[in-house]
């Protein structure tokens, strides 16, 4: 690892077209789970000018009112009123192609008297944690999220000059593996007609001062705001969106590897989602326990098979002296169940909690959100320490 380097991550707002799709897909998932916690759901969304298309497979005794759920999701994001005539919660056309889940998928996954519930699909998932920040996330993605989320809070609290669509990009300087300063901040933010570049820049500069800690010297950073000029026309009216196209934004901003599977619209029997949450949970608890400064974990599964086929763990030469990766993997296996059912039970995933995860990242949420985002808790750190001591 070089002693000094630069690393960049980006975030996008809930009004970004791809994130609108994630929000709709997860809102539909939550509507199912609210009525039936064991519902099986896999829903994809496409949005474009004046159109929402939803498709996927579900299995549930009760079916929600799709149109109501979709329109409410769009309304909560902020696409309402005359300023959003090309994509509006009240007038957008909805095409629904959601159908029943295949019996062949169900038979490979369902638990019965002869076998434990298996994974809903094959796949490999990564989890990561770093002591860059208080929430054990890499600094670039952590602050990229916080900036764009704070701008959204201002908009919803009455800042009428801003629109729902936005992006951020933050570059940090690292020395000896630790973030020491912000080098560059880029914000592209939709605004209302007639709002000047100076107006938007003033809002952005105030937000940077609120969000970026002074010891990272944000006042010395290069700052770019709407570098192409105006950004009046945004959202799905300007650009098409799809569910699952922001997987790096959803995870670690490129600081860790990604298995490839997206999260939104998938119920927690799908290990693309639940095992990625568990991998984050394990990596975060390992760092919280003081075993290493950063940790990456990979879990891999086969469809219909309960236990993971393999566990990979890397602490990037930050492991505490006297420990090995095998020690940590053994402690993990002794502390938590890594079967799909075991993950769902331990993290309490069969709840309607996913709409709020669909923007500003699935990981690194604040302590006040940990009740919903159970994979952000560090409640097994002491158990892992005990398991390692016993092994030693």
Structural class: alpha+beta
Number of helices: 10
Strand content: 15-25%
Q: Please describe the biggest sheet, giving its number of strands, its sense, and whether it closes into a barrel.
A: 4 strands, mixed
**CA(first)-CA(last) distance:** 30 Å
List the strand order in the largest sheet: 1-6-7-8
Helix content: 25-40%
Low-pLDDT stretches are: none
Total count of strands: 11
Compressed to H and E, one letter per element, the order equals: EHEEHEHEHEEHEEHHEEHHH
Protein model, in words:
The chain has a four-stranded mixed beta sheet with strand order 1-6-7-8. A four-stranded mixed beta sheet has the order 4-3-2-9, covered by helices on one side. A three-stranded antiparallel beta sheet has the order 5-10-11. The chain is built from ten helices and eleven strands. The chain has helices at 17-35, 66-77, 103-109, 139-156, 197-211, 247-250, 271-288, 325-335, 340-347, 381-391, and strands at residues 4-12, 40-48, 51-59, 93-100, 123-130, 162-175, 178-191, 222-225, 241-242, 294-301, 310-314. Helix 1 (17-35) crosses helix 2 (66-77) and helix 7 (271-288) packs across helix 9 (340-347). It is an alpha+beta fold and 392 residues long.
Topology:
Elements: E1 4-12, H1 17-35, E2 40-48, E3 51-59, H2 66-77, E4 93-100, H3 103-109, E5 123-130, H4 139-156, E6 162-175, E7 178-191, H5 197-211, E8 222-225, E9 241-242, H6 247-250, H7 271-288, E10 294-301, E11 310-314, H8 325-335, H9 340-347, H10 381-391
Parallel strand pairs: 3-4, 7-8
Antiparallel strand pairs: 1-6, 2-3, 2-9, 5-10, 6-7, 10-11
Helix pairs in contact: 1-2, 4-5, 7-9, 8-10
